[in-house]
Every structure is written in structure tokens, then in C-alpha cells.
Amino acid sequence: MINSDTYSSFNERLSRWLLLFCLVAVGIGQSFIFTSLPPIGREIGLADVRISTLITAGAATFVVAAFLWGGIINRIGRVRSVIIGMSCYALTIALTGFVLQEALAKNLSAEQTYYWVFTLRIVFSLGIAGVLPSIQTYLIAHTDIKHRSSTIAMIGASFSIGMILGPAFASLLSSLGLTAPFYIIAFLAGCAALFVVLFVKDKKHVRQFERPPAINWFKEPVMPFLGMSTLAILSVTGIQQIMGFLIQDRFQLDVAQTTHQLGFAMMTMSCFSILVQMILVPRFQLGVVTLIFSGVAMGVLAQLAFILLDSYVGILFAMGLFGAGFGFLFPGIVTAQTLLVKDDQQSRLASMNASMQGLGAALGPVILASLYQLGQLVPFLGLMFALLFMLGVFVYCKSKLKHVF
Predict the structure, then answer these.
(1) Which of 281-286's residues contact partners 24+ apart within 8 Å by CB, and which partners?
(2) What residues does the Major facilitator superfamily (MFS) profile domain cover (predicted)?
């Protein structure tokens, strides 16, 4: 006979890995569109500005929808929320592929295509905004506090892996047809939803049928850490935005050379971030204080490297440092947040955090690109002071909440 404890342990591990696989799929869905949509949009006659608005509309919807998902998760359950989000993801991506395919076949005009894809991107973001908060809340509920930072790190690493795989999938699968990536990635998301239906159970969730009292986040002790979350994501997306400008300007390269070297730089940052979150944080069970201090220290060193090292190797070194710093900082900030609220508020916190991260992702490219116009080194100086300010806020909060950390 199979020991019930062994079966329960196996089932929990299976549920954990299936949910992390969902996060990989979400990362793919968020990033592959950046590679697939621009060339298809141009092919069917959409202006570059209109193509950009499709992506921006999805990002803006995500910010609002993520904030609203907290109460929904409490009401319908974490697993059901994941299933709804992943099903919505699969359906809208497949329909987007179909609409674009019809446009390429000249069965739809560019104008009709734009409005169809715009609507589908809105619906996609409405659904997918609930996946990350649901999974984060589920995994926290099924993990003891000692391993919480490791769990948060795995969440970040899984999403990062998906963000890396998305453009790669789009490039490889496009050889089967311009819209093939949409159908194959939709199938992947659909399989993920089906596996969650079949294998993931949540016996710890207590559904809330009465509407919980509203939370004034500005008066909650977690608010500074939500701000830190926004700043951390803002710095990552901002660096990604300006790195192409920096490489081209610093080394006087053409577009093809810049794209090639930018790819290596981005890969370096992502790989170091994943390495830290998947290996170092779980291996050493690092606490909030160590994670945040290490993340800020490495982030500041990365900015100094961007400023002082003029070679391409120097940029790769700085990107590696920055990726590693984010790998420490992200789980530190999110773990701190989860320690500052009650268990019945975790889903609403996760939703609020996802919304704040979406806001940071939207603001980062605009803010750092604007700073870059003032001078090549201005964004890095700005980020250095921002990271030091973040550390100062954390030290102050820690002195007030020392029993928590």
C-alpha cells in the first residue's frame, strides 16, 4: 500500500510544479507577442504606433485587472482562478492567431483586424492578471514561513524563464507559419489549464461569501514594500529599454550589430537572475534582510559598472550583476510583503503587488528613456540613488517592524 503521507507529499510537489509551469506559460504569453506582433502588423498594413497601442492597452488593463482579482480569488478559490485565467489565455491567444491569419489572407481589413486584436488583448489581460496572484497565494498557503523566500524566488524564476522562452518560441515556430506560434502557445496554455483541473487541489482555501472590508493600502505597513516592488520592476524594464541605445551609442554600431549584442546582454541579465532565484536563494534559505541588502548592493555595483566600464565585456559584467541583484531583491521584497499581512489578506496583497509591478513595467521604459535623453549616464545615476533610497526605506521599516523580519 502507498503511505498516505507519501501520496500527499507527492501530490503537493506535483501541484507545485504544475503551477510553476503555468507561470512559465504566462511568461511565454507575455513576451512572445513582442516578437510576433510587429512583423505581422506591418504585413497587414498596421502603423507602428497602432501596433504599440495593442501592447500598451494590454499592459494598462493588466494593472487594473490585477488589483481587482484579489476579492475574486477569495470568493471562487485559488485553483478555479488559475483555471479561468489559463483558459482565457489559451482561448484569446488562439483567436488572436486566427484573426491575424484571416488578415494575412486578406479576409479582414487592417482596421477590422486592429479592433479585433485590441479587444482580444484586453480580454487576455483581464484573465491572465489573476493567474500570478492565485498561484502566489496558493504556494504561500502550502509552504511554511522558513521556506517562503525560496517559494517566492521560484515564482520569479519561473516567470523569467517564460519571458526568455517567449521570443525564442516565436522565432522558431514562425518557420511553420507566421501565426503558428499563437496556436502552439495557446495549446500549451490549454494543456496547463487541463493539468490544473485534473491534479491540483486546494484543501486549505476557505471561500469568502461575504465581501471583506476594504483595505486602505496607504495606511498599511506593507505599502512601502509595494512601492519597492514597483521600483524594482521599473528598474528592470527601464534597463531593458535603454540598453539598446547605450550599446549602439557607446560602440557606434549599426542596427544589426546592436541587435546581436543586445541579445547577449539581455540573456546575461536573465540567466544570472534565474540562477540566483532557482539555486542560491533556495539552497541557502536566505532571509528578507540578507536578500534585500544583497540585492541593493549588487544593483548599486551594477550601476557603477555601467558608468565606469566602457567595454562590451564591462556591459555584460554589469548586466550580470544587475540580474543577480534583482534575483535577490525580488524574493526579498515579496517575502517581506507576505509577512506583513494576515493569511486571509494574502490573495488581495498578491493582486495589489501584481498591479504595482504592472505599473512599474509600464513606467520603466518611459522614465529611463526620458532620463537617457538628458545624458548617457543619467539613468544609471538615477537608479543608483533610487536603490539606495529603497535601502534607506527598508532600514527604517525594519526598525519599526523588527519583530516581523
Answers:
(1) 281/149, 281/150, 281/153, 281/327, 281/328, 281/331, 282/147, 282/150, 282/153, 282/154, 285/146, 285/147, 285/149, 285/150, 286/149, 286/328, 286/332
(2) 15-400
Tell me the three cell numbers of residue 369. 528613456
Task: Write down the mean pLDDT value for the chain.
Answer: 88
Comparing CA positions, the residue from 57, 30, 62, 181 lying closest to residue 114 is 57
Residue 31 pLDDT: 80
Per-residue confidence (pLDDT) for residue 160, from 0 to 100: 87
Please choose, from the candidates 217, 219, 270, 216, the residue with its C-alpha nearest in 3D space to the C-alpha of residue 243.
270
In this predicted structure, the answer to whether residue 205 has a pLDDT above a threshold of 70 is no
Within a 10 A sphere around the Cβ of 273, how many other Cβ atoms? 28
pLDDT at 42: 82
**Relative orientation angle of helices 48-76 and 4-43, to the nearest 10 degrees:** 160
pTM of the predicted protein model: 0.84
Number of CB atoms found within 10 A of residue 219's CB? 7
The amino acid that residue 140 corresponds to is: I
pLDDT top residue among 169 and 327: 327
Q: How far, in Å, CA of 33 to CA of 31, rounded?
A: 5
Contacts for 218 with CB less than 8 Å, ≥ 6 apart: none
Among the residues of 252-345, which ranges form H helices? 255-275, 281-284, 288-308, 312-339
Residue 334 has pLDDT above 90, yes or no: yes
Q: What is the enclosing helix (H) or strand (E) of 352?
A: helix 346-374
Q: Which three cell numbers stand for residue 179?
A: 501565426
Biggest alpha carbon–alpha carbon distance for the chain: 70
Angle 131-141/148-173 helices, nearest 10 degrees? 150
